[in-house]
Write a structure and sequence with these properties.
It is a single chain. The chain is about 30% helix and about 15% strand. By secondary structure, the protein is of the alpha/beta class. It has two domains: about 280 residues, no CATH class; about 120 residues, 2-Layer Sandwich (60s Ribosomal Protein L30, Chain: A), CATH 3.30.1330.60. The strands form two sheets. Strands 1-4-3-2-5-6-7 form a seven-stranded mixed sheet, with helices on both faces. A four-stranded mixed sheet has the order 8-11-9-10. Helix 1 packs across helix 3 and helix 5 crosses helix 7. The radius of gyration is 26 Å and the shape is elongated.
Length: about 450
């Protein structure tokens, strides 16, 4: 076993028992049987099965689209890099059941296997290639168990030795390893076991607004860095994206799905073939003295408070509970938006002189005409929800301002490239609440 370490890093040694060397060309039945060995005798994982076997298979691999996962016959890894998150904000590292087929196929195919440890400065441990005895089924199963045991031991031994989590850098190391050990990238596989919330590097999810960015726009903003990953033709499987442990607060279902969509979109833009499994990862986080900054989640605001004879403007950008899905007039999180809109409706229904102006704004993307149309449509979406809560249409005025409004933030670099985080702030709905009474003088303006 050879261990390669990045500068100033210490990688704990991982020992692999010597295995008998013999050439064996895998068949699909032996691969599936090997997955069953992995399930029953080593990790307790789910064996791979076809759709007809799913009634007898607890936790078969599945994608976020709800269909059956990849079957063993379709997997031919010549190299496999396991990218393992070891930071505080997710369950301790282990091999999830979704990777049963991939791991057993890798051993069957004598694939080059490595483990990439993701902390603030990721490292790689090369486990090499495993071989199986072909003369005796019993010895063959023993060889398979030892090989899978070595891989699992390396994963479980993965530990941080620096603060932070740089997942982008970890994927870069994995890509370099896989490409260096395969003749064809279509046989190169990367499996990422991580929550997808790095706090440093090219993709830092702790930056305000990152959870709400448009994945396509963000990928375009880092196009040079994505090209440097050299992912074209590689196969990437994401496991556990969006599933956290303390001290990271749990993501909502919508946020977890958004994280999966984000990473899939970005890596596909980089040229990879990507799938993301839906099964959650649970458990205690690793015990480590090294810290990782948690992602701050937006909390629902307090109900509005407006003094009589004044106006108050509430701003909800795309990172807020009233944020919208990219290129859509649908709320990012329907339940969160409902709480905010319900409170505003209650205020509007609390007095006869109460009204609201809903102004939609956008980033400076597309034509002015399309910006205004999108802004108006989003303002009307909020208005419709208020009416659903009993607010009279006469109390509501909507306006689409596009990207031309007071408070607009420059969302392009001097070179003309869109800043996706500034775009999140510019995409908003602004609710100007007013309470007038017969004894009010001229409204005193916004506060």
């Amino acid at each position: 076993m050879e261990t390669q370490t990045m500068p100033h890093k210490r990688t704990p040694p991982v020992h692999r028992p010597a295995l008998r060397l013999s050439l064996h060309l895998p068949t699909w039945s032996t691969v599936t049987a090997a997955a069953a060995v992995l399930a029953a005798l080593l990790i307790g994982l789910t064996a791979c099965s076809g759709p007809q076997d799913q009634d007898n298979t607890a936790g078969a691999t599945s994608s976020r689209t709800g269909g059956p996962g990849p079957q063993c016959p379709s997997v031919h890894p010549a190299a496999l890099a396991l990218v393992i998150g070891v930071h505080q904000n997710q369950p301790a590292p282990d091999i999830p059941s979704e990777l049963a087929c991939l791991l057993t196929s890798a051993v069957e195919n004598q694939a080059a296997v490595a483990v990439v440890i993701v902390d603030g400065s990721p490292t790689i441990t090369r486990l090499g290639r495993f071989t199986l005895d072909t003369d005796n089924d019993g010895r063959r199963n023993d060889d398979m168990k030892r090989a899978l045991g070595s891989i699992r031991k390396a994963v479980q031994a993965a530990a941080a030795d620096s603060n932070g989590s740089d997942l982008f850098a970890g994927i870069k190391i994995a890509s370099d390893y896989v490409r260096a050990t395969t003749r064809s990238t279509v046989d190169g596989y990367i499996a990422v076991i991580d929550a997808g919330l790095p706090d440093t590097g090219v993709i830092d999810m702790t930056r305000p607004g990152m959870l709400a960015t448009d994945p396509a726009e963000f990928a375009k903003s880092i196009d040079a860095e994505l090209r440097g990953l050299h992912l074209k033709g590689l196969n990437v499987t994401l496991v556990g994206i969006g599933y956290t442990s303390s001290p990271q607060l749990p993501l909502t279902s919508a946020q977890s799905d958004a994280m999966s969509t984000f990473w899939q979109s970005v890596l596909r833009t980089g040229g990879a073939t990507v799938e993301s499994t839906s099964s959650p990862r649970t458990g205690k986080p690793p015990t480590t003295p090294f810290t990782t900054r948690p992602v701050v989640l937006t909390k629902p605001p307090q109900p509005p408070r407006v003094r009589p004879c004044t106006t108050t403007t509430l701003i909800y950008d795309d990172a807020s509970p009233v944020g919208f899905k990219p290129k859509s007039n649908a709320f990012r999180e329907t339940d969160a938006a409902e709480i905010v809109i319900r409170d505003i409706a209650r205020w509007l229904l609390g007095g006869s002189g109460r009204s609201v102006l809903i102004t939609g704004t956008t980033a400076r993307v597309d034509t002015d005409t399309n910006q205004v149309r999108r802004a108006q449509e989003r303002a009307r979406t909020v208005a419709t929800k208020l009416v659903d809560h009993g607010v009279r249409p006469a109390q509501i005025t909507t306006h689409g301002a596009g990207s031309h409004f007071p408070g607009y933030i420059q969302d392009h670099t001097p070179e003309g490239k869109l800043d996706p985080l500034a775009a999140v702030k510019n995409r908003s709905v602004r609710l100007t609440l007013r309470e007038s009474r017969p004894d009010c003088a001229t409204p005193q303006g916004s506060r």
